[in-house]
Design goal:
Elements: E1 10-14, H1 24-40, E2 44-50, E3 59-61, H2 68-78, E4 83-88, E5 95-100, H3 108-119, H4 127-148, E6 156-161, H5 162-165, H6 168-174, E7 179-185, H7 189-197, H8 201-204, H9 210-216, H10 220-232, E8 235-238, H11 241-251, E9 257-258, H12 271-293, E10 304-310, H13 320-336, E11 342-348, E12 353-356, H14 358-391, H15 407-420, E13 431-433, H16 440-447, E14 458-463, H17 478-484, E15 487-489, H18 499-505, E16 511-514, H19 518-526, E17 535-538, H20 545-560, H21 564-576, H22 583-600
Parallel strand pairs: 1-2, 1-6, 2-5, 6-7, 7-8, 8-9, 10-11, 10-15, 11-14, 15-16, 16-17
Antiparallel strand pairs: 3-4, 4-5, 12-13
Amino acid sequence: MKENSIYEPLLLEVAWEVCNKVGGIYTVIKSKVPYTIERWKGQYCAVGPQISAEIPVEFQARTGTDSPFEKAAAILREEGLDVKFGDWLIPGKPNLVLFNINSVLPRVKEIKKEYSRNHEMMFREEPLVDQVVAFGYMTTRFFEVLANSGVTDKSIIGHFHEWMGGMPIPEIKRLDLKVSTIFTTHATMLGRYIAMNDSNFYKRLPTYDWIEEARKFYIEPQVSIERLAANQADILSTVSKVTDQECEYLLGRKSDVILPNGLEIKRHVAMHEFQNLHKTFKGKINEFIMGHFFNNYTFDLENTMYFFTSGRYEFVNKGYDITIEALERLNARMKKANIDKTVVMFFVTRRPFHTINPLVLELRTKMDEIKRTTEAIQEEIAEKLFEAAAYSEDDLSLPDLNQFVDEYWQFRYKKTLQAWKTPYLPIIVTHNLKNDSEDEILKAFRKFKLFNREEDKVKVIYHPDFIDSTNPLFKLDYPQFVRGTHLGIFPSYYEPWGYTPVECLVRGIPAITSDLSGFGDYAKNEVKTVTEKGIYIVNRRTQSYEESVEQLADYMFDFVQLNRRQRIELRNNVEKHSDVFAWNNLGRHYMEAYRMAMEKM
């Protein structure tokens, strides 16, 4: 098949996360769009659900085109379905079709009954499943119109992501539509649930009874939809060899192609530019640290390193358990070796909370007030010092600067500092959690006595919310926060791919991952000298839990002993070699999937 021929069909990418930022798949599709649009142009269309009554801010309606997608949407509107066509306002600006799933929810019982009859499966009352069924019904009708109404004479490829997007596949097969289908599972439903509850998940993987396990976790409809989509799709794909094992044993079919996840990488013209960004954003983190810690005790920020982990709150799956235990060992080793450095470790994940801890917010506010006060004093001193210099005759020495600060600012300076100082230890969690007594991260902090004592070399901060520029504590977007850190730590037990270490590497930040994550497994097999390129891989496949903790502690201890020049060289090396994870490299796997889909037509 000629290379150009794979770009001839219409390509529709269907996912719950299209124009709906709820998880990592949003990043996958959004970051891949420029690469895809460069090849498919207007033949590509993203398809997603409108979940709330409000139209997403990333959507912009467009009319009057000759697009088959707009024509099909118009036909569905004539049928009474609430369908919108326009642009997805992201880089690449692709065609976008949005289905208002609330418009068909009143009919969802009838839709489920028919789907059950056609595919021999059972549903129950569950809001999310009902929404998925509504989305699946509307998407199926859209493909019917495209394929059968004379809207287009082009071939059609439908690429469906996860169980929430895959429901139309069995219906497309039943209706014998001229649509070639690809189903991508980023993580099997059963795999995620079982791994959280079975420490021998990978050893026992071939032995699980999928029906029994689905009933155990009360997710039979979700798993049934996923299995139907996986087995009836023309092409089954997943994101890593690790997840392919789940496809074989939990979905009953090995994947036809592996689609590792990349990122859109924008190169800096000069190598020093991203080093300057690191310095700038580290300065912002420094401000937070001063406000959080220095009211009680201080440490040298020039000898402080910022480590972090982030992602979905899954204490075992994400490796938060071994990370906290390894931090306790790192703390002990640094004390014993008398290393004159401090490590601040951030845990960034989403948990239910009432508010930001008022004390944490108050301290940050007071730090901002101190900054404003010192800037005012600086301005006053500069003006009066300039005048004194102009009037000076024989005495060329620097005058006493205190005489240039009037009593008001001296009093305000002392009063602000006095109000800021407190006698208690720096707080380990920035928010008031709704159930802090049962929170696994906090329980682990208590177990390993990570309390932010002055004598501790390792400090911890648990931030149970997203980091973005509207956040009053950091005043940074997440990518900026990542750039300001020194090391990302993601030793996952269950991680089908793992974007978080990739997001570090493309920003010049070294990262620790594991060989049980799809990314770690890929890096181990595809990237030579991974450690030299800033990728540290914890062996969790063949080592015991204890050995993995010790290896993670070794990696962190070795890292804190690097001097500044060595860390700069490592960041340069990381940034220089991160192209291996760019879509311009990894996108070829998607091209292979689409080529295979064409051959199935």
